[in-house]
Write a structure and sequence with these properties.
A 7-stranded mixed sheet has the order 3-2-1-4-5-7-6, sandwiched between helices. The chain contains 8 helices and 7 strands. By secondary structure, it is of the alpha/beta class. The model has no long low-confidence stretch (mean pLDDT 95). Strand 1, helix 4 and strand 2 form a beta-alpha-beta unit.
Length: 233
C-alpha cells in the first residue's frame, strides 16, 4: 500500500461524505497564503470530530492548537444554539488568521480564540471553573502528557478527549527514539493508560496526511484536581 492509494481512497470518501465547502476551502487557502504549515486535520478527520460532537450533543468544546481554525470550524458547526468552543493557540499570528477564517465562516459568536502557551491558558480556564463536553488536542507533541492531565481536570464525566498524531509513522513503539515528539506521544499513552478515570483506545490511520493515528478517551470518573505543578513560568 502506498501514500498514492491512501490519498485516492481519502478523496473518494471525501467526495461522498465531506464534499467541498466554501468556508472550509477559504480557511485552507488563507492558512496557506499566510505561510502557515499544512498540518491541519484531514477533511475526513474533521468530519469525524463533527460527528462525535453531534452524537454526544456537546455544548462546550475545548481545542488545543488552533492553527488556521480549520478543525475549529468542523467542531463549532456541531454546537447547538448557545454552545461555545474555546480554542487555544500559542502563536499570535496563527490566531489572527484563525479569527479571520472563523469570521468568514460566520462562527465568531460561537468561538473564542485564546492566545498563549497552553500550559498558561489552561490554568486560567481551571480558575474560571470551566467544564467541557469534548476536548480535541492537536498541539505540540512534546507536552501531550501535560496537556492530557490538564484537560482531564476540565472534562466532565462522560466527556471525550481526542488526541491527534499519536502514532508518528509507527515510531510510537520505539522506546529509544531521540525525537522528543515521539517521546511526548509515548508519555501521553502512558498517562492515559494509567488513569483509572478514563477508558480509551488508539487507532492507526492512513490517508492524505500519511500514516499516523488518534487516541480517544472517554472520561468515566469525576474531573481531577488541576495539576498545578505543570504550570509554565
Amino acid at each position: 500500500m502506498t501514500n498514492e492509494i491512501w490519498t485516492s481512497v481519502d478523496r473518494y470518501f471525501e467526495g461522498l461524505f465531506a464534499p467541498p465547502d466554501a468556508a472550509l476551502e477559504e480557511a485552507l487557502a488563507a492558512t496557506a497564503a499566510a505561510g502557515m504549515p499544512a498540518i491541519q486535520v484531514s477533511p475526513l478527520l474533521g468530519k469525524l470530530l463533527h460527528l462525535l460532537a453531534l452524537n454526544m450533543h456537546a455544548q462546550t468544546i475545548l481545542e488545543l492548537g488552533t492553527l488556521g481554525g480549520y478543525s475549529s470550524i468542523w467542531l463549532a458547526r456541531a454546537l447547538p444554539p448557545g454552545g461555545r468552543l474555546i480554542t487555544l493557540e500559542a502563536d499570535p499570528r496563527h490566531a489572527e488568521v484563525a479569527r479571520a477564517n472563523l469570521a468568514r465562516a460566520g462562527l465568531s459568536g460561537k468561538i473564542e480564540v485564546r492566545v498563549g502557551p497552553a500550559l498558561e491558558t489552561l490554568p486560567a480556564l481551571a480558575s474560571e471553573g470551566a467544564r467541557f463536553d469534548l476536548v480535541f488536542i492537536d498541539a505540540d507533541k512534546e507536552r501531550l502528557a501535560a496537556y492530557f492531565r490538564w484537560v482531564r481536570s476540565l472534562t466532565r464525566r462522560g466527556g471525550l478527549i481526542i488526541v491527534d498524531n499519536v502514532v508518528r509513522r509507527g515510531e510510537v513503539i520505539n522506546a529509544d527514539s531521540a525525537d522528543p515528539r515521539v517521546q511526548g506521544v509515548r508519555a501521553l499513552h502512558l498517562a492515559i493508560a494509567g488513569d483509572p478515570g478514563v477508558t480509551a483506545t488508539a487507532l492507526q490511520t492512513t490517508g492524505i496526511k500519511g500514516y499516523d493515528g488518534i487516541a480517544i478517551a472517554l472520561v468515566t470518573g469525576e474531573p481531577l484536581p488541576p495539576p498545578r505543578e505543570e504550570i509554565q513560568h
